[in-house]
């Protein structure tokens, strides 16, 4: 089976950064499969908006931190690819799904640590492994890190450590998948005003002012600042960008 239209799989595509990524990919003429954890209605709204542009879109449920569920997700994905897109492969994997948890080192619990690791590192590692046979040669993988892997913010030691691991993993992806022509890159957003971590950056005036003052462009980031970069990395214009960490922070803590 062969489908000439490009297809991107975006985890955590029902809201925030993933939602904007999905819209921007569709604008580039790329069909989208997005996953959601619990917000099915939000995901279906994203699908409906993408379909209005003439692109195909589908939403699938996925707990990105539950590796044992990936086999079932894999089967659903194969079925959707065949029925909706008339193919058995896709082109771009965007590992975006995430959760926000923060605690000082002295207050971090093993449960919190494991939850972050399962979603932000272990889940990304083994979901990518599971998807490799379905990824077209010449395609791409984009992983989401954080500005916090470069600069430090009290309370984010565990979260940022997982993101640091993702950056290393991405370089290994580029090395091992290069013979298949598959590119692997990391984007590292700065502080973004979304409902991530309970909407802390968006809704906390003090945090908002601090981020703005620490950012060269003088404001907090918005989801609209991120999605277009991801979409660009999925185009032919970005064909020679590989194994890179691209920070999208407006110049935060420079």
Please supply descriptive tags for the structure shown above.
8 helices; Rossmann fold; 7-stranded parallel beta sheet; 254 residues; alpha/beta
What does this structure look like?
- The protein is α/β, with parallel strands linked by helices and 254 residues long.
- The chain has one domain (7-248): Rossmann fold.
- The protein contains eight helices and seven strands; from the N terminus they run E-H-E-H-E-H-E-H-E-H-E-H-H-H-E.
- It has helices at 16-27, 40-51, 70-85, 110-131, 157-177, 200-203, 205-213, 227-233, and strands spanning 7-10, 31-36, 57-61, 90-95, 135-144, 183-189, 245-248.
- Strand 5, helix 5 (157-177) and strand 6 (183-189) form a beta-alpha-beta unit.
- Helix 1 packs parallel to helix 2 (40-51), helix 1 (16-27) packs across helix 8 (227-233) and helix 4 (110-131) runs parallel beside helix 5 (157-177).
- The mean pLDDT is 94.
Name given to the CATH homologous superfamily: NAD(P)-binding Rossmann-like Domain
CATH class: Alpha Beta
Taken together, the total number of domains comes to: 1
End-to-end separation in angstroms reads 48 Å
Residues in helix, %: 40-55%
Structural class per helix/strand content?
Answer: alpha/beta
Order of helices and strands: EHEHEHEHEHEHHHE
- Could you tell me the number of beta strands? 7
In the CATH hierarchy, the architecture is: 3-Layer(aba) Sandwich
Which regions have little confidence, pLDDT < 50, spanning 5+ residues? Answer: none
Main sheet: strands, sense, barrel:
7 strands, parallel
Query: What's the pLDDT, averaged over the residues?
Result: 94
Radius of gyration: 17 Å
């Amino acid at each position: 089976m062969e489908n000439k239209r490009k297809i991107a799989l975006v985890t955590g595509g029902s809201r925030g950064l993933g939602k904007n990524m999905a819209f921007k990919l569709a604008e580039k003429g790329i069909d989208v499969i997005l996953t959601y954890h619990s917000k099915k209605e939000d995901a279906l709204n994203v699908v409906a908006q993408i379909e209005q542009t003439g692109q195909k879109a589908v939403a699938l449920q996925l707990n990105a931190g539950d590796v044992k569920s990936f086999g079932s997700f894999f089967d659903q994905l194969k079925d959707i690819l065949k029925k909706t897109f008339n193919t058995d492969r896709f082109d771009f994997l965007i590992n975006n799904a995430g959760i926000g948890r923060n605690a000082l080192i002295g207050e971090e619990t093993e449960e919190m640590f494991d939850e972050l690791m399962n979603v932000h590192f272990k889940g990304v590692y083994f979901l990518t492994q599971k998807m490799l046979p379905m990824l077209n040669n010449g395609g791409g993988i984009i992983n989401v890190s954080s500005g916090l892997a470069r600069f430090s913010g009290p309370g984010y030691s565990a979260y940022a450590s997982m993101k640091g691991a993702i950056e290393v993993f991405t370089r290994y992806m580029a090395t091992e998948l290069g013979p298949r022509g598959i590119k692997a890159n990391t984007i590292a957003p700065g502080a973004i005003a979304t409902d991530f971590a309970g909407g802390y950056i968006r809704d906390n005036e003090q945090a908002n002012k601090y981020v703005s003052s620490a950012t060269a462009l003088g404001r907090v980031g918005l989801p609209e600042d991120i999605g277009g970069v991801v979409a660009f990395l999925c185009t032919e214009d970005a064909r020679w960008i590989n194994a890179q960490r691209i920070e999208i922070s407006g110049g935060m803590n420079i």
